[in-house]
Amino acid sequence: MTDTTPIKSGVPHPTSAAGGAYSPSVGECGNAAVSIRDVVRHFGRFAALRGITADFAPGQLYVLLGENGAGKSTLLRVIAGLLAPSRGTVTVLGSTDIRAVATRFGYMGHAPLLYDEMSALENLEYFAALYGINDRARCEEAIRTVGLDPLLERRVGQYSQGMRQRISLARAIVHGPELLFLDEPFSNVDVRSAKQMTTLLARMRDHGTTIFVVTHQAALMEPVADECIVLEAGRLIAREKGIPARLLTPYLAEERAALRGERGNLEVEP
Amino acid sequence: MTSAPGLWAITRRSLVKDLRLEWRSKDAINSMLFFALLVVVIFSFGFDPTAEESRKIAGGLLWVAILFATVVALNQTWTRELRNQVLDAYRLSPAPPQALFLAKTVGNFIFVSILEVLMVPLFVVFYNLRSVGPLWQLLVVALLATWALVVNGTFFAALSIRTRSREIMLPLILFPISIPALLAMVDATTSILTGDNSPIFWIRLLAVYDLVFTSVSLILFEPVLNAE
User: What pTM was estimated for this model as a whole?
Assistant: First the structure.
């Protein structure tokens, strides 16, 4: 992955010069990049989100944590306009009409959102065109930014899962969004590439992009996260500066305890 | 920041993309051709008409075969947008939803037209057909009838895209609503082949049908695309 990305050139991150000082309050930072009020989302009788209210300041990198089914991806999809809230309002970049700000945000889903039968460059050229961008060089640069070769002629369907994830990230950032939603961007990505991706995200944040990352790999985001949002059973239960150590390895600790238990059982055998 | 792209630019881009995907996968064309060929051959074994009888039944057989084959292609059209949830990427973009609909419809029109170009000579051979009426009228009927099938088909295929049994749902919704068009295309074709009646009324009916359903589909496509 190159270190000289021109993908986003915006207002420098206000905290970057001060060594990453924490500034999560929207009141302190001016207008919220995303503001959600009492958002509820039902799937049939199941409530995936239960009255979430929060403001998110611009130019910050937020990490959404929580167990499977906590509502992280649903929250991201509701903010991005892919799902309508059953109740409540979502304001993105000052607008409650998500289509009005569609050119200003990017979304990377759990699925790659790419055509398997086309190459990475063909995919990016098509999706960039949807944003009114007809610039091959810009698409090539986006692919290089995520550490891949734009001249690779293989079709995306023949890529590894990790490569698809990176192309999916390139698709989400090719139009230079001010706001970026990433749903599990590191799944199936090797550690080195994942670290390169986090470096890229930090750099984008430093240039003013507001970023939301849903992940189970909190440790990867720990060095660059401004704030973590913890969801549980559809409720926002905590917002904390950075990612506290206790949230980095909860599953690992449980796993160790379970393994100790299993070994204990095994040791009963003569 | 970027600006919202125009309808025709995105329609053209999406059409080129669809043609490229079809050229590489050949999902729609292969299944359509195979199905239509089967129908023609089975019909030819099922009936043994004289030249006069052929002219009377060929219109019906031809358009029913094309209708069934079209349904096979229409299902493929949207299935590839569901793979990897690519449709979400389109929904998130500022591109006009109507551009996607138009591109899909024109793409399907091209695929079905290719099918017709290949099927008609087979029909002529298998049913020993000779048109009594002017051939240019057949061409007009073919264009209007094909558009009628694909514009409705593309819309209803999009409507049934998220249903679990979409391959059954599509014909269930599409066939009843296509009856006026089917009636017009069959009667117009038969009128031209036999030379008994003027096909003008049926051609006009097809034109009005196309106009109405194209307009309605364009208006209603956005809520269909964004339906959960």
Answer: 0.85
Does the distance separating the beta carbons of B3 and A116 come in below 8 Å?
Answer: no
Q: What's the rounded Cα separation, in Å, for the pair A174 and A137? A: 11
SS3 call for A223: coil
CB contact under 8 A, B20 and A122: yes
Single-letter amino acid, residue A7? I
Name the region of A184 (left: φ>0; alpha: ψ -120 to 50; beta: rest). Answer: left
Reported as a single tens digit per residue, the pLDDT across B60-111 is 888 988 998 999 888 888 888 988 899 999 999 999 999 999 999 999 999 9
**Domain locations in chain B?**
10-226
The list of chain A residues with pLDDT below 50 reads: 1-29, 263-270
What are A94-137's pLDDT values in tens digits? 999 999 999 999 999 989 999 999 999 999 999 999 999 999 99
CA angle B22, A83, B82 (to 5 degrees): 15
How are beta strands A235-241 and A87-92 bridged, if at all? unpaired
* Contacts of residue B200, Cβ cutoff 8 Å, sequence gap at least 6: none
Specify the DSSP class assigned to residue B162: T
Write out chain A residues lying below 8 Å of B97, CB-based. none
pLDDT in tens, B168-221: 888 888 999 999 999 999 999 999 988 888 899 999 999 999 999 999 999 999
Radius of gyration of chain B from its Cα atoms, rounded to whole angstroms: 18
As given in the structure block, the two tokens for residue B37 are 């060929």
Q: How far apart are CA A12 and CA A22, in angstroms?
A: 15
DSSP bridge partners of A236: A231
Whole-number pLDDT of residue A143 = 95
3-state secondary structure of A225: coil
Domains of chain A: residue spans and CATH = 28-268 (3.40.50.300)
Q: Which residues contact A208 (CB under 8 A, 6 or more apart)?
A: A8, A10, A11, A12, A13, A58, A59, A178
Task: Give the three-class secondary structure for B82.
Answer: helix
Distance (Å, whole) CA A109 – CA B180? 43
**Interface ipTM:** 0.88
CA torsion angle for B210, B216, B217, B219 (degrees, to 10)?
140
Asked if the Cβ–Cβ distance from A132 to B2 is below 8 Å, we say: yes
Q: What are the residues facing A211 on neighbouring strands? A: A61, A180
Residue in B4, B13, B24 closest to A117 by CB: B24
